[in-house]
Amino acid sequence: MKIRGALALQKRQVLIFVVLLGLSRAGNINWIFLGNLARDLGLKVDELSSREARVVSDDNKKYLHLDLLNGDLLLNEKLDQEELCGSTEPCVLHFQVVLENALQFFQVELHVKDLNDHSPTFLDNEILIKISEGTAIGTTFLLESAQDLDVGSNSLQNYTISPNSHFYIKIPDSGDRKIYPELVLDRALDYEVEAEVRLTLTALDGGSPPRSGTTLVLIKVLDINDNALEFPQSLYEVQVPEDRPLGSWIVTISAKDLDARNDRKISYTFFHASEDICKTFEINPMFGEVNLRSPLDFEAIQSYTINIQSTDGGGSFRKMHPSS
Ligand SMILES: *[C@@H]1O[C@H](CO)[C@@H](O)[C@H](O)[C@H]1NC(C)=O
């Protein structure tokens, strides 16, 4: 709080107080000392009560208090600039000090300036977002806003995100004076390359220098079934004597899923198999084991070519080529 000046005019004096208001929303009512009216008006302290001094403001708000015992003029600390002036800047309040007898008026101006004494803060120190790796470029994700108890130019002005190759911040024009950040996907995510992305979101206010607050944005990339299954071998060649007993194991094939999720079951089936093959062999769909189902006869058939398909919901197949 600073008193900028007191103009000593005989009839109409104008006193100007400048107060820097740092907002505090908690606690008891405290009073900010603006100045001593008796001294600034050139009166004796007991004159204030004997001449029935009082403070008169247009809107009759009780934000000012004149202490007649010592002449101190006080401002209710719990008021904030927004309450006093709305968004009008500069915030100047006019009021009068009236002495009843003999009648005398003093014009007083109160210049209220918001002090940038609060940093923007986020409610949470981590924001978790789950984004599927197939998500289209340009998709936006609403992020949590920060709070700043200061007003006017000292309030929140901007958001930035730490440098990265996938996202940028957009601040949509919301119509009102509130600003909130949106995260925009700029380059596709790939779970198999990067399963999570950690970014720092910074909120900046308009003070000079600006104050800032940060939060972690943790992006979990969700895997989609974007990789075909792969067989380590494209051809399994097996020789089997014709006198193998029924149920004998012939070969086991296995496919590899390049999608990193392991809760997806791979299953195996014959693919476009002839009646002969279906009659002679069977495959365990879970383990890819091919077993003998009916006797082989070298004189009748000397080789079989079996296509086996493995699937995880997508599809991919390779051949197996047992010969007897
Ligand atoms: C917000 O920050 C970005 C990145 O630093 C900058 O390009 C932009 O001009 C800023 N916007 C405002 C309104 O200050």
UniProtKB/TrEMBL annotation:
Residues 123-234, 232-314 form the Cadherin domain. Pfam families: Cadherin (PF00028), Cadherin_2 (PF08266). Keywords: Calcium, Cell adhesion, Glycoprotein, Membrane, Transmembrane, Transmembrane helix. It is a single-pass membrane protein. InterPro entries: Cadherin-like_dom, Cadherin-like_sf, Cadherin_N, Protocadherin/Cadherin-CA. It is found in: Membrane. This is Protocadherin beta-14. It comes from Saguinus oedipus (Cotton-top tamarin). The lineage of its organism: Eukaryota, Metazoa, Chordata, Craniata, Vertebrata.
